[in-house]
Specification:
Layout (H helix, E strand, L loop, with lengths): L3 H6 L11 H8 L23 H7 L6 H13 L9
Helix pairs in contact: 3-4
Bound molecules: zinc ion.
The site of zinc ion has 4 residues, from α2.
Length: 86
């Protein structure tokens, strides 16, 4: 979630719709930076549902390890195949 001013600059209404990082940056004409994001819990850097790109924009320094955390989360929740009967 970005600040209202950033959202408005992208031509979006307050509480209206969603944009991916790429579309939002295209509309803004620049890369998102940590100060663009609110302190809403969804912006928590430990949120496993964010993409590597989103995490990199919220991090003071881009950290590729955050993308790996997302992958590890997916692997952890992926249903396992049932064990073969004997
Ligand atoms: Zn998009």
């Amino acid at each position: 979630m970005v600040h209202d001013a950033v959202w408005a600059r992208a031509g979006m209404y307050s509480d209206g719709g969603f944009l991916c990082v790429g579309c939002l940056e295209k509309r803004l004409g620049r890369t998102l930076r940590p100060s663009d994001f609110t302190d809403a819990p969804i912006n928590d850097l430990d949120n496993p549902w964010q993409t590597e790109r989103l995490a990199s924009r919220k991090s003071p320094q881009p950290n590729p390890a955050r993308g790996r955390a997302v992958l590890e989360h997916w692997r952890a929740i992926k249903p396992r195949r049932a064990a073969k009967p004997h």
